[in-house]
């Protein structure tokens, strides 16, 4: 599945001629897939199947645990220097496995002798002796030791955490992910699905909104703290999906939709709480401004993606990384000092600033794209 997702069109598995050995290869859902086949020997099948020896191939050796993004990065590195042999050794002490990329002719035969002395930039850290103690370095080969499986699972879960570092805000990287990957690791061993986690977290978010609408200082503070927990759990569904290979377009959309709905509920809950505390109708108008701002953001984002999908998504991701889920920590601080109305005012007008800025960005991009090349 990882190879298929990385864009590899055909998979050949060297299973030997012994029926007992071939029976150990469980193809599962790929048993009837013509693009996934078992062969007796890699040395024989290219000529028998009339394959081009110069065709770029990926060879996986050993019982490897690795990430799809890691394989994709190695393939990109090979494409930058096509025709050369590239290898990624496993980070276990025995280096019992490897990912090798190169022309088919160079990968046929003994894979160990085919490896060049220089490692791929994908995991040069694995060449450092200290990397053996780093529980996040992949790929990792299971070599039959009793503790291999548990160590591989931990490495995989931690690698998921580090993969998200480029898109997470500061506090999410420093605190949230340190907690979420541990919970994801435990949930991956259960029957709980990522979508179930998303729905449970959505209900928790609605509960936080109800608490923030209260006039009680203690309940509002409890709502802010629970929302901080909800923000941490928000990363679990995605991590769990990657750990169990359950990523889906529906799950991604469900996560985005429920996140936005919960955020609207949280901000609305705070506005209602401020109105109940102050008895000022100003906060009802602020709530209306806030809801209109959310609608304007949705329209601007949709327009930006339809006009400049890649550039818009890059710009939006930069904004999200700068702010992201870290606003939950600001809520806790404001709740402690009983100043949640600061956030209500800021969010009400901040949404409009974001919507107008994104609209301007889209117009600027469209004009530059339509401008004649001189």
Description:
The chain has 374 residues and is mainly alpha-helical. It has two domains: 93 residues, no CATH class; 203 residues, CDP-alcohol phosphotransferase transmembrane (TM) domain (Four Helix Bundle (Hemerythrin (Met), subunit A)). Helix content is 60%, strand content 7%. The strands form three sheets. Strands 3-6-5 form a three-stranded antiparallel β-sheet. It has a two-stranded parallel ribbon with strand order 1-2. It starts with a helix and ends with a helix.
Cα distance spanning the termini: 46 Å
Provide the gyration radius in Å: 26 Å
Instruction: Give me the strand/helix succession.
Output: HEHEHEEHEEHHEHHHHHHHHHH
- What does the largest sheet look like? 3 strands, antiparallel
CATH class of the largest domain: Mainly Alpha
Under CATH, the homologous superfamily of the largest domain reads CDP-alcohol phosphotransferase transmembrane (TM) domain
Residue-averaged pLDDT, rounded? Answer: 83
Briefly say what this structure is:
The chain has 374 residues and is mainly alpha-helical. 60% of the residues lie in helices and 7% in strands.
Based on the model shown, name its key terms.
single chain; 374 residues; mainly alpha; Four Helix Bundle (Hemerythrin (Met), subunit A); three-stranded antiparallel sheet; elongated
Layout: helices, strands, pairs:
Layout: H1 2-5, E1 11-14, H2 19-23, E2 36-39, H3 45-48, E3 56-61, E4 64-65, H4 68-80, E5 86-89, E6 98-103, H5 104-107, H6 111-114, E7 140-141, H7 148-163, H8 170-187, H9 194-212, H10 217-233, H11 236-243, H12 249-278, H13 282-307, H14 309-322, H15 327-336, H16 340-370
